[in-house]
């Protein structure tokens, strides 16, 4: 059984299955190949520049001051390692499925299922938080023009105040409290994802162009109101203060990997997917750094612990009309995030269905719209219904864990892939840099530089209540030691090793309670795998 749990699909088999559209009664062929580099770059920007730049950047700036710009660079480099590894896989395995498919090639079926299940957190469940955030921006936008929805139509059961409950209509004594804007936007975006990639592409391109124009306008105007004295000291709380914003800043980068799910709708995925990922990451990083300098220059960093920092700083300099413009941009930005994630999730389910790990209906392609129609509808229901009733914005950190877990497996998978002759292969290939010396030297150097922080982590004077929160860090240290020794003895490639370790470190910055919930989520996924997927696996039946 252990062998069957780690059975792998060959690259040739995966590509053949994707091309063999109607095999085994599976309607998985004929997807519309319309995406080019500019479209993929736009989709990457659409997924990345969302709620993060309009909200979480304020929290990070509060802790790190102007030095938060360094954190954006560090996080971008971390994501860059993962993006390069994704690009390597995307060029070798030009089919839908993202990290799920890549793990099936390198680690085997069980790992593929686990990562597919974890990606539900990133895409489907994470989108619930985005939809609720969109509703908040939209209601503020309505307020700016003197309109408003009844409070019971723009709230959730678990966040409604007594006044909202009292104002709501009651059915059989139960108050009717709905977040109607969140539900409506999910329905509209799901419809757009359902009717075709061409329509989705045009919408994403338009929204990206609009929000980049607004962000550039905000940056240019904001620099005229910058007080350079606010940039001193550069790191008011030291480097440890900068690092406190790790989780918030990383959340602002989530999404660039979603474009790898559209591989079968690219005109030339082996050439264009790597470029789209890397270009979108570079553009977003430059915009984030400029925004961080504007924010911390316009007002002192200690005033930025607010929900809407961009709007707040322009209110402080008496430009409320720009605040309203930012609200419009925030609505557009979160809509584009919803769209890209609603496109990504059904294509992962489609790939899992092809392999027999999910029922065949999830792999059905609409004969007219050429999209995974059934999976798209299920994704819409999975996001829309909870957003209508519940306040699940707490899944932000949980979403980050699922994403980082996927990044780690993709980086690890690249280490397993056999190297190919670059003179023969005419596509993107991750450059090999021998990590034999660089990794040990880098790890020792970082350990010396952060010796005080590490010493605090290993101080057991606080008892179990303090010690237990450092368990993820202790696991990270153990993994780091193993990877360092393997790099020294087996000459591992530098970029994927750094990708794995940097992503794992970011996971240690997320609270232990989220690790526990994530473990429970994985346990539920494993139960489904053994009750259904294991026995229905096509690879298992062939064996």
From TrEMBL:
Residues 494-537 form the Cationic amino acid transporter C-terminal domain. Gene3D superfamilies: Amino acid/polyamine transporter I. It comes from the Bacteria. Coiled coil: none annotated. One of its GO terms (molecular function) is amino acid transmembrane transporter activity. GO terms for cellular component: membrane. Its main location: membrane. Signal peptide: none annotated. The chain crosses the membrane at residues 40-58, 70-89, 110-134, 171-194, 206-226, 238-256, 277-301, 321-344, 374-394, 400-418, 430-451, 471-487, 514-532. It is found in: Membrane. Keywords: Membrane, Transmembrane, Transmembrane helix, Transport. It is a multi-pass membrane protein. This is Amino acid/polyamine/organocation transporter (APC superfamily). It comes from Chitinophaga niastensis.
